[in-house]
Amino acid sequence: MRVLAVTANKGGVGKSTLAFQVAAELARRGLRVLAVDADKQADLTRYARGPRLAGMGLDAVLADPPASLDPRPYIGPVSDNLDLLGSSPRLADADPVLHSAEGPLLIQRCLAVVADVYDWAVVDTGHSEPIIAAVLVAADQLLMPTTASAPDARHAGDMLQTAVRVREQLGLETAELLQRSLITIWRRQHNGVADAEVIANLQERFGDLVCPVVIPHSSRISEANDQRLTVREHAEMFGTARDRPLRAAVDAYEAITDHVLARAGVVAGDPSGPRLLEEVDFEEPDLARVASAIRRVKARRGLDDDELAEVLGRSVDWVRHTLAFGTRYPEGEDRLTIRPRSRVAVRELADPWPPRWRP
Ligand SMILES: Nc1ncnc2c1ncn2[C@@H]1O[C@H](COP(=O)(O)OP(=O)(O)OP(=O)(O)O)[C@@H](O)[C@H]1O
Ligand SMILES: [Mg+2]
């Protein structure tokens, strides 16, 4: 069984949606899939029509003290080839257990019990640090969604850093894990210049880690979630041939699943693994470039800040903040360069003239 962990440092970037869609797409390909909700918010459980009730899912498996760690009594069917180990708000009670010395290994042990029954476990993680750590230990691959906004993209590298730290502490390999992992981008605007800049930036920084399929923004995806359907089911039941946003969403999740499968096939010992690890650059994206792009749009179209915010689908505060960044760090200027002091200041500092009162 392969364990795919869907995880991100940021909230609301589409983790649970992605976990559900990819789990369903894997199952559609005839693979036996267990969707695991490791978030106390239990959104995946909701999307997959599971019971968000205490004692019916992972919260029961990890109850204090963890009993047998056997998840089987709590697994229920979702659709052909797809089962669910759900969650509930009571999963928060498991944090002390996960903080214990054995804690980081508990999810791995729990999944090992069903390793022969499924081809894939797709785990949605929330924001509990000990749970994220335990999922990172169990994972064979990471799927890390981000939106195409600069502040969110800045967090994209954080999860990689956490994964490296947690696994190295336990002496687990990391290079292969990263080699198989993917960052997916949810593009929130159709015409966002800033989005395009951020995507280009992510690709520049993370190279191969960035999945070339960009998830479109579509209200149809939220509709599907609200109806407890996959976007494919939603398209089959309610879509029309001309419903392009819906088709685009179905295609995106299908293509991401292809990429996940392709990454799973990356063989151990591939020499590009360690190289990739060295190449991962944890620096923040270049906000100055985003700022200069939106300054150009502003100037060309003669927009004020409010209009620019409207065009970009952003808050006015974000626009002002980003523009201000660009002013403080004008295009082309190296932010780490220390500017020479002005001539007056230099003269004062060097004080080349002897004090007049000296003989
Ligand atoms: N591509 C998309 N287009 C439009 N809406 C989306 C898209 N993906 C997710 N959403 C909606 O955005 C919201 C957040 O999505 P989701 O629950 O998947 O995020 P999350 O990262 O799991 O959030 P959390 O951090 O709270 O767990 C939901 O209402 C969902 O329906
Ligand atoms: Mg979620």
Cα gyration radius (Å): 24 Å
Q: How far apart lie the N and C ends?
A: 88 Å
The description of the largest β-sheet is: 8 strands, mixed
CATH architecture group name of the largest domain: 3-Layer(aba) Sandwich
| Relative strand content | 5-15%
Hetero compounds: adenosine-5'-triphosphate, magnesium ion
Please report the first level of CATH classification, the CATH class of the largest domain.
Answer: Alpha Beta
Count the strands?
8
Q: What count of helical segments does DSSP give? A: 18
Poorly predicted sequence stretches spanning 5 or more consecutive residues? 267-284, 329-355
Protein architecture, described:
The chain is an alpha/beta fold and 359 residues long. The protein folds into 2 domains: 2-279, P-loop containing nucleotide triphosphate hydrolases (Rossmann fold), CATH 3.40.50.300; 287-350, no CATH class. It has helices spanning 15-28, 43-47, 58-61, 95-99, 106-112, 129-138, 150-154, 156-169, 175-179, 193-206, 219-226, 231-238, 244-264, 272-279, 287-301, 305-312, 316-328, 343-350, and strands spanning 2-6, 33-38, 75-79, 82-85, 120-125, 141-147, 182-187, 210-216. An 8-stranded mixed sheet has the order 3-4-2-5-1-6-7-8, with helices on both faces. The radius of gyration is 24 Å and the shape is globular. Residues 267-284 and 329-355 have low confidence and may be disordered. Bound molecules: adenosine-5'-triphosphate and magnesium ion. Residues 11-17, 39, 41, 43, 126, 186, 215, 217-218, 221-222, 225 line the site of adenosine-5'-triphosphate (ATP).
